[in-house]
Amino acid sequence: MQLYGRRSSINVQKVLWCLAELELVEGADFQRIDAGLQFGVVDTPAYRTLNPNGLVPTLVDGGQVIWESNTILRYLAATRGAAHLLPLDAAGRSEVERWMDWQLGALWATLRVAFLGLTRTPEPQRDYGAIRASFAESARLLRIADERLQTRDYLALDQFTLADLVVALAVHRWYGLNDRFRTLLAAQPEMPSLVRWLDAQRARPGFAVSHG
């Protein structure tokens, strides 16, 4: 397999973490090719043939080409027999997939405004009103997860799944912004259950692998 994408991308980190959970090792079981931002590649005709969006990640598995990070995770779980990460039964699968969709369509869609505004936008061009609104709204969403985790160790089922993986990477970024830009962002309520859960996810070997 070949995985295209720079390690710093949250969506590439999803795939790297999933591969680690499957005990697949970079350099032995798959090759990662730096692509995106300073690495280029994504604008080349060869890459656009693989992924017409010109985004990362893209996974090439033999003759199969898969893009969109959550779709890659579903593909890996299905083809590698990882029902512990994504159940085969419809009910269990829906429990996991709703949090995967929530991470992509609600949480990250909201948080990325603050994340990109503070980490990639030059100071003179930052829209602090939009940044603070994004950060506060993403905190409101995270309180949904915090409430869910008050009586649970995992988001979806009674074990680690893809739901925990994808949400943890976004929550990790939220706390990173909160720590780094605390004076610029409005204080948010404590979320102790979310913090406890995040610490447990960060302790998994796959998280460390995803961050290099």
List the SSEs and their pairings.
Blueprint (H helix, E strand, L loop, with lengths): L1 E3 L5 H12 L9 E3 L11 H6 L7 E4 L2 E4 L1 H11 L10 H30 L8 H21 L13 H19 L11 H11 L2 H6 L2
Parallel strand pairs: 1-2
Antiparallel strand pairs: 1-3, 3-4
Defining traits:
212 residues, 7% strand, Glutaredoxin, four-stranded mixed sheet, 2 domains, alpha+beta, single chain
Describe this structure in words.
With 212 residues, the chain is of the alpha+beta class. It folds into 2 domains: 2-79, Glutaredoxin; 90-206, Glutathione S-transferase Yfyf (Class Pi), Chain A, domain 2. The protein is built from 8 helices and 4 strands, in the order E-H-E-H-E-E-H-H-H-H-H-H. It has helices spanning 10-21, 45-50, 69-79, 90-119, 128-148, 162-180, 192-202, 205-210, and strands at residues 2-4, 31-33, 58-61, 64-67. It has a 4-stranded mixed sheet with strand order 2-1-3-4, with helices on one face. Strand 3 and strand 4 (64-67) form a beta hairpin.
